[in-house]
Design a protein that fits this description.
The structure is a single chain. The protein is of the alpha/beta class and 225 residues long. It folds into two domains: 117 residues, Rossmann fold (3-Layer(aba) Sandwich), CATH 3.40.50.2300; 95 residues, Arc Repressor Mutant, subunit A (Orthogonal Bundle), CATH 1.10.10. α2 runs parallel beside α3. The longest helix has 15 residues. The protein starts with a strand and ends in a 5-residue tail after the last strand.
Amino acid sequence: MRILLVEDEDPLREQLARELSQRGFPVDAAPDGEEGLFLGREYPMDLAIIDLGLPKLSGIELIRRLRELERTFPILILTARDSWQDKVEGLEAGADDYLTKPFHVEELVARVKALLRRAAGHASPVIEGCGIRLDTARQTVAVDGRPVELTGHEYRVLEYLMLHAGKVISKTELTEHLYDQDFDRDSNVLEVFIGRLRRKLDPEGQRKPIETLRGRGYRFRTDID
C-alpha cells in the first residue's frame, strides 16, 4: 500500500518514512505542500499523511486541491495544534482522521491500517476468503486454520489482492502500490511471488484462489468458500 507523507520537520518525516517502510509500506515523502501536491497528482497513492503546518502550500489547501483533483484515497492529518477548530477544518477539507503531535508511531500505524481497510470496504482487521484467513493487524495468514509462513513481499501481494477481492488487478497496479520506485518492474519477480503464494496457499491446486487473467492481471476469487 503506497503512502504519501507530507511533513516539513525533517527528523519526523525521516523517522515516519523509515518506520512505515519497515512495516512494508512504500513511502513517497515530501517536505512541503507543493511537492506533496505533485506526488499526489502524478502517482497512484493508497493513503496520505499530511501535516497541517506546511510551507509553500498549507496542509488544508493541499487536502482541498487533492480532493478537487478527485483523489479519493484516505487522508490522515497531523497537527501540533490543540484547537478543535483546526481539526474540524481539516476534516471538512476532506481528511478522514487526525493525530495530534506528539504521538506514538504505533498509533499512527494502527490508524493507517484502519483507514486502508475501511477504504477497501473492510471494517474488521481479519479478511477471509477461499479458506484463507488474513489478519492485517498481526500480519498473519492461515489456511483452514493452519498457519502459513509468507515473506514480506508475498504477504503484501496477498493482502492487496484480498483487500480488493473480486477486482482485476494489473501487474502495473500491483507494483506501483506495493513496491518502492526502484523495484524492477520489467522482471518476472511478481510472477514468482504469485507462484509461491499459490503453492503455499493451495498446494493441491484444488481451490485456485488467485486467478490469472491473461493480458489483464490477477484476481482473488470470491466465488468459492
